[in-house]
Amino acid sequence: MLLESSPSSMPLSLPPPLPSVPDSITNSSPPPVSYITSQEMKCILHWFASWSGPQCERFLQDLVAKAVPGKLQPLLEGLEQLSVSRANRPPCIFGCQPRLWDQWFRGWAEQERNEFVRQLEVSEPDFVAKFYQAVAATAGKD
Questions:
Q1: Full-model pTM
Q2: Arithmetic mean of pLDDT, 60-82
Q3: Among 38, 95, 101, 120, which residue has the least CB neighbours within 10 Å?
Q4: How far apart are CA 6 and CA 11, in angstroms?
Q5: What's the 3-state SS for 24-71?
Q6: How many Cβ atoms are within 10 Å of 21's Cβ, its own excluded?
């Protein structure tokens, strides 16, 4: 049996519109990061995974100094880490990595810097917890 519908039998109805997405959801994702910056971040995260405990500590001090640049205490602690290397000895790989990290970090926008800390927190939550504690410890110190 073949059913035929006549034009007057049932009006064509459209499905109800989809509900709108709340702004809190659409704005919750991190802002896009440029391809070059994302590659720099991946590189630093890769380096971090191979650093020794003292190298991670040095990186922590540098990250804190960058997070609270107006504070004197992180700057003084960073100066203590400086040493003069002998000219006849080539720099180690770790000696070059912080220089690149510093150069790249200075070129990142604030949201890119925050995104880096977020990515670091995903892979190294204990380290980032120490970072937040160190930043909080600078409060009130000048």
A1: 0.64
A2: 67
A3: 95
A4: 10
A5: HHHCCCCCCCCHHHHHHHHHHHHHHHHCCHHHHHHHHHHHHHHHCCCC
A6: 9
Residues 35, 33: Cα–Cα separation, whole Å:
6
Band (25; pLDDT cuts 50, 70, 90): very low
- The whole-angstrom separation of Cα 137 and Cα 106 is 23
- State both tokens at 21: 């997405």
Could you give the CA distance from residue 34 to residue 40 in angstroms, rounded to a whole number? Answer: 10
Please tell me the total number of residues recorded for the chain in this structure. 142
pLDDT given for residue 139 in this prediction: 80
Torsion-angle region of residue 18: left (phi > 0), alpha (psi -120 to 50) or beta?
Answer: beta
Rounded distance between C-alpha atoms, residue 102 and residue 75, angstroms: 14
Q: Which residues contact 64 (CB under 8 A, 6 or more apart)?
A: 74, 131, 134, 135, 138
> How far does Cα 47 stand from its chain's mean position?
14
- Whether 72 and 141 have beta carbons less than 8 Å apart is answered as yes
Measure Cα distances from 56 to 49, 62, 111, 127 in Å: 9, 10, 23, 8
